[in-house]
């Protein structure tokens, strides 16, 4: 199936990029569906106004933000894995949730860590109210909130330090919404895991559910591991290396394959009258 041509967003001047860095909330308006950003970079001499500026292209990694891309993913998975093809036929295709700004999504992921969904939602709602609203959840605002103030809305001292470290890395330019959108998967993984409190599992969830990256395999996620164990009839939960080997056939759409592992575990839990665990319950947002 042919995919539609990628859309482009024009960033015309350095001042625009500067504005994005100074006010990260504006970068939430960047369309995640775009595949490329065209950035004007003038190489002409300053005293020669007759020369046209040259353009360089910043490639944005492929995402699952369009139905044709999801259709292509499902077609690939059906053709490469008969067992997964049977599972795909019993569930509707993945539906994408709207994307928030990367900073907001990462802040939310920190708050939600190791908490039941209901409790996490309650704390997150109070945290947003403390900032003002979701558009006000920006690095400068979060840095202005003391650990004591965050504690009043249910954020632990440890998570407050994580939120401050994330905010500091955005404020100093180490990270930005724009750079996160354009980084390749490996670079993004390395950069985000350097933030206090953000480990491999959190990065994988962020890449799948917030950025809609198509080829992420969360080898440490309990739900995905249980799904692979069930789908292939394994005696034990597969370890990371075994997960990589078994799911290699899903490339370059391992995110979608993982999504169906959650669906498989969810269906089995319902059949057995059990609620999914915190790590299993990752269906929201995708």
Automatic annotation (TrEMBL):
State the CDD domains in the record. Answer: ENDO3c
Domain HhH-GPD, which positions? 111-266
- State the superkingdom: Eukaryota
MF terms (GO), sorted A to Z: alkylated DNA binding; DNA-3-methyladenine glycosylase activity; DNA-7-methylguanine glycosylase activity
User: DNA repair as a keyword?
Assistant: yes
Q: Region (Disordered): which ranges?
A: 1-31
Task: Identify the Pfam families for this entry.
Answer: HhH-GPD
* Transmembrane stretches, start-end: none
The reply to whether Ribonucleoprotein figures as a keyword in the UniProt entry is no
Which InterPro entries does the record associate with it? Alkylbase_DNA_Glycosylase/TA, DNA_glycosylase, HhH-GPD_domain
One GO term (biological process):
DNA alkylation repair
Q: Which UniProt keywords apply?
A: DNA damage, DNA repair
GO cellular component terms, A-Z: nucleus; protein-DNA complex
Q: Which family does it belong to?
A: Belongs to the alkylbase DNA glycosidase AlkA family.
Indicate what this protein is called per its UniProt record: HhH-GPD domain-containing protein
Q: Which organism is it from?
A: Hibiscus trionum
Lineage from the top down? Eukaryota, Viridiplantae, Streptophyta, Embryophyta, Tracheophyta
């Amino acid at each position: 199936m042919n995919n539609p041509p990628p859309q482009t967003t024009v960033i015309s001047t350095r001042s625009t990029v500067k504005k994005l860095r100074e006010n990260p909330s504006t970068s939430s308006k960047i369309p995640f569906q775009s595949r490329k950003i065209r950035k004007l970079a003038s190489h002409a001499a300053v005293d020669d106004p007759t020369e046209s500026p040259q353009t360089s292209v910043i490639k944005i990694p492929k995402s699952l933000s369009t139905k044709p891309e999801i259709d292509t993913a499902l077609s690939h998975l059906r053709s490469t894995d008969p067992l997964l093809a049977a599972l795909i036929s019993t569930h509707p295709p993945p539906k994408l949730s709207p994307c928030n700004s990367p900073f907001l999504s990462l802040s939310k992921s920190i708050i939600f860590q190791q908490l039941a969904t209901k409790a996490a939602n309650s704390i997150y709602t109070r945290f947003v109210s403390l900032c003002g609203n979701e558009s006000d959840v920006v690095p400068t605002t979060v840095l202005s909130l003391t650990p004591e103030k965050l504690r009043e809305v249910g954020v632990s001292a440890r998570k407050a330090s994580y939120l401050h470290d994330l905010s500091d890395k955005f404020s100093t330019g180490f990270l930005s919404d724009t750079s996160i959108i354009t980084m390749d998967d490996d670079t993004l993984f390395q950069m985000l895991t350097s933030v206090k409190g953000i480990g491999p599992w959190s990065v994988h969830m962020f890449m799948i559910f917030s950025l809609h990256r198509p080829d992420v395999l969360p080898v440490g996620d309990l739900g995905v591991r249980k799904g692979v164990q069930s789908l292939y009839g394994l005696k034990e939960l597969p370890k990371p290396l075994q997960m990589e080997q078994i799911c290699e056939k899903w490339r370059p759409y391992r995110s979608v394959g993982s999504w169906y592992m959650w669906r498989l575990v969810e269906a089995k839990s319902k059949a057995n009258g059990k609620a999914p665990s915190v790590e299993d319950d990752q269906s929201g947002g995708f």
